[in-house]
Amino acid sequence: MTSPTFDTVRTAATVFRQALVRMDRDEFVSLANFPVGACGDAAPLLGHYLLDQGFGTWTYVNGERPQGNHGFESHAWIEQEGLIVDITADQFADISDAVIVTTDQSWHSQFRVADATHPARIDIYDDYTRATLRRMYDRALEAL
């Protein structure tokens, strides 16, 4: 495993996000309006990609924050030893960066994190979800 640096992780995350943007997403409802509404699937896809690139296992983190009178809005990202990587935060009006690689938790700490975090990998899900994520991942790799 390569010890990730900000720059190497940012480069890999940027390359992967660009692949998600370029790939044919018509088949995948969750990625159709990328980055809007795509974080739940983009996070494990990115985690799997970073694992494949030799950066070790990442943790899938999701949380909710209050959203006016409408209840809550949710968001997902990945982390490893305090390093946050987020390729879909720009779906929110208060974020303009397409790729976030940071140890600063100030923005992400607005989200109340669920207790059930897990490895950000494709192979941990049920058969249907794993197959769907694998198709997404393969399409993204084709778009690299």
Describe the structure.
The protein is of the alpha+beta class and 144 residues long. It has one domain. It has 3 helices and 6 strands; from the N terminus they run ααββββββα. Strands 1, 2, 3, 4, 5 and 6 form a 6-stranded antiparallel beta sheet that branches. β1 and β2 form a beta hairpin. The protein is globular, with a radius of gyration of 14 Å. The two termini are 22 Å apart. The mean pLDDT is 93.
Order of helices and strands: HHEEEEEEH
Average of pLDDT: 93
Intertermini distance: 22 Å
Structural category: alpha+beta
Molecular shape: globular
- Helix count equals 3
List keywords for this structure.
single chain, 144 residues, alpha+beta, six-stranded antiparallel sheet, 3 helices, 6 strands, 33% helix, 19% strand
